[in-house]
């Protein structure tokens, strides 16, 4: 039996986090760095990623990334490998969530939502997965959502994109698990990032909070804690799961 590191240390591991300049991605970057990982922050906002990497006070680097652009993904992964030599953990956290009633939903909303949330997750997972397969191991963590498993009002594009992320996660787990690469998903409820606080204040937030048995929304650090577990060697037998961090929302 493998010795368990109950400190959940990531010392010696390189973790790549997309969308790492803000929100959940930034919380995960901080948690990983605090547990010994070398962190690569990839974000469309290079200035923000650079500032975040500098703020970590640990081995950290920043990269510009457009997850929808195959060339950008390829260049970014090559740069991380060139700097760190390997990628042990990938967190696909980049995402967008514009909302509209289904009857009014235009392709100007649908297409970018699917492009960032699903196409982007696939492109980065594929590029990093190839490297992990070559090196003989790694952990991929895809940020899905409770919206992947439950219908949410005005979330047609978002729900579809995140359901696709779950399907992709399971296929990668099936194909790559026997070669040492684990792929799992995390499905948060509403998370109190800066954007979450803005979008879910007032009566709308109060009404939705009542649907969560825990009676509150999640904090970014709670999502980061789940990611830390899935990144660590304590979860070597966990592959292909969706881990809800939703206060019981999906238990209904």
Automatic annotation (TrEMBL):
Sequence ranges assigned to domain Ketoreductase in this UniProt record: 13-189
Keywords for the protein's UniProt record, in alphabetical order: Oxidoreductase
Classification via InterPro entries: KR_dom (IPR057326), NAD(P)-bd_dom_sf (IPR036291), Sc_DH/Rdtase_CS (IPR020904), SDR_fam (IPR002347)
Any GO molecular function: oxidoreductase activity, acting on the CH-OH group of donors, NAD or NADP as acceptor
UniProt similarity note: Belongs to the short-chain dehydrogenases/reductases (SDR) family.
The protein's name in its UniProt record: D-threitol dehydrogenase
Species of origin: Microlunatus elymi
């Amino acid at each position: 039996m493998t010795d368990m590191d109950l400190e959940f240390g990531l010392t010696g591991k390189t973790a790549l986090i997309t969308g790492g300049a803000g929100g959940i991605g930034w919380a995960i970057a901080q948690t990983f760095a605090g547990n010994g990982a070398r962190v690569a922050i990839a974000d469309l906002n290079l200035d923000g990623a650079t500032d975040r990497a500098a703020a970590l006070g640990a081995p950290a680097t920043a990269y510009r990334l457009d997850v929808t652009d195959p060339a950008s993904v390829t260049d970014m992964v090559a740069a991380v490998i060139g700097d760190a030599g390997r990628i042990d953990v990938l967190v696909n956290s980049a995402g967008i969530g514009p909302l509209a009633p289904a009857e009014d939903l235009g392709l100007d909303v649908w297409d970018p939502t699917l492009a960032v949330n699903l196409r982007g997750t696939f492109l980065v997972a594929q590029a990093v997965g190839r490297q992990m397969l070559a090196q003989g191991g790694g952990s991929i963590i895809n940020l899905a959502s409770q919206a992947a498993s439950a219908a949410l009002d005005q979330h047609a594009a978002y729900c579809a994109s995140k359901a696709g992320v779950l399907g992709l996660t399971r296929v990668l787990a099936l194909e790559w698990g026997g070669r040492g690469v684990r792929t799992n998903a995390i499905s948060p409820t509403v998370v109190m990032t800066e954007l979450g606080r803005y979008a879910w204040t007032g009566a709308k937030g109060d009404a939705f909070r009542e649907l969560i048995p825990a009676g509150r929304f999640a904090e970014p650090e709670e999502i980061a804690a789940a990611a830390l577990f899935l990144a660590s060697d304590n979860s070597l037998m966990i592959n292909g799961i969706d881990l809800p961090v939703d206060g019981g929302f999906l238990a209904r």
